[in-house]
Amino acid sequence: MERLQHHWYRLSPLHLVLLPASLLFRALAAVRRFLYRSGIVASVKLPVPVVVVGNISVGGTGKTPLTLWLARQLIDNGWHPGIISRGYTRTARGHKAPQEVSGTDDADDVGDEPLLMAQRALCPVWIGRDRPAAALALLQAHPECDIVLSDDGMQHYRLQRDAEIAVVDGARHFGNGLLLPAGPLREPVSRLRQVDAVVINGGKAGDGEFSMSLHGSLFYNLLNPEIEVAAGEFAGQRLHAIAGIGHPRRFFSHLDQLGLDVQPHAFPDHHRYAASDIAFADADAILMTEKDAVKCATFATERCWVLRVDAQIDPSLTQLILKKVTP
């Protein structure tokens, strides 16, 4: 899959081979969506509202920061949200039953993004391959929860939803516009006409869309999180930066905007780090995202620093979602 990604943002002779598979994928996705939406295949309605945060493309678009932002907005408006997610890597280890995520869990067991959200400690976070089962387990364990946020759940049609938010990467958009495996799309761009809100992360929002940007300028030490420094503290140091996220260039560009001259090291999304990945002998400091940090904590050194970023989104999105979920 990683090799194919180089062809997702252009057209090449390889697409003569990939296009038939892409057309078949598109047809199957459309049939599956029709079966659920027509009621031919049963879906699950929860006793509380459900808001899905997702995208139509593969790779990082900013779903997790948006989910955390929305959880904060709901809390500030008197709601008690809970978050559900699949939990990347869990199926490979044989875990299928719903499970609550603790901030002290191992990323290999629960997934990097669910662990990151749990460490923010805003609300309960549950994971499970079966989204409805995970949501029902969450509600049983936390009866105070009166709304469920489904992180990366747009294509999980078995769970009915009251609102859908689609996140679009403002820099990469939709690549070559083709569906998997010829392009990065899980569903055609026309699918965006059916969602309640389209959020553009890091780009200009069009009419009816909502703008989103990621902000952060303070770094905390991975071994001693209570120690925080501003970007200026790294002036004159030999800096290396790692990013195992969907769009590493976004992180490196953020560091550049902070005035930091770094040696960048991009890794695949959800990369399982080893100590050797950050063994940079000449580094005075190693900078990373929160998503990287949860997987590097067990072998981190005092040179590891983490940039916390938070989403800033058009506040009118909050009012739209509140209107959708309020009886």
Automatic annotation (TrEMBL):
<keyword id="KW-0444">Lipid biosynthesis</keyword>
<keyword id="KW-0418">Kinase</keyword>
<keyword id="KW-0547">Nucleotide-binding</keyword>
<keyword id="KW-0067">ATP-binding</keyword>
<comment type="similarity">
    <text>Belongs to the LpxK family.</text>
</comment>
<keyword id="KW-0808">Transferase</keyword>
<keyword id="KW-0441">Lipid A biosynthesis</keyword>
<dbReference type="GO" id="GO:0009244">
    <property type="term" value="P:lipopolysaccharide core region biosynthetic process"/>
</dbReference>
<dbReference type="GO" id="GO:0005886">
    <property type="term" value="C:plasma membrane"/>
</dbReference>
<comment type="function">
    <text>Transfers the gamma-phosphate of ATP to the 4'-position of a tetraacyldisaccharide 1-phosphate intermediate (termed DS-1-P) to form tetraacyldisaccharide 1,4'-bis-phosphate (lipid IVA).</text>
</comment>
<dbReference type="InterPro" id="IPR003758">
    <property type="entry name" value="LpxK"/>
</dbReference>
<keyword id="KW-0443">Lipid metabolism</keyword>
<comment type="pathway">
    <text>Glycolipid biosynthesis; lipid IV(A) biosynthesis; lipid IV(A) from (3R)-3-hydroxytetradecanoyl-[acyl-carrier-protein] and UDP-N-acetyl-alpha-D-glucosamine: step 6/6.</text>
</comment>
<dbReference type="Pfam" id="PF02606">
    <property type="entry name" value="LpxK"/>
</dbReference>
<dbReference type="GO" id="GO:0009245">
    <property type="term" value="P:lipid A biosynthetic process"/>
</dbReference>
<dbReference type="InterPro" id="IPR027417">
    <property type="entry name" value="P-loop_NTPase"/>
</dbReference>
<dbReference type="GO" id="GO:0005524">
    <property type="term" value="F:ATP binding"/>
</dbReference>
<dbReference type="GO" id="GO:0009029">
    <property type="term" value="F:lipid-A 4'-kinase activity"/>
</dbReference>
<protein>
    <recommendedName>
        <fullName>Tetraacyldisaccharide 4'-kinase</fullName>
        <ecNumber>2.7.1.130</ecNumber>
    </recommendedName>
</protein>
<feature type="binding site">
    <location>
        <begin position="57"/>
        <end position="64"/>
    </location>
    <ligand>
        <name>ATP</name>
    </ligand>
</feature>
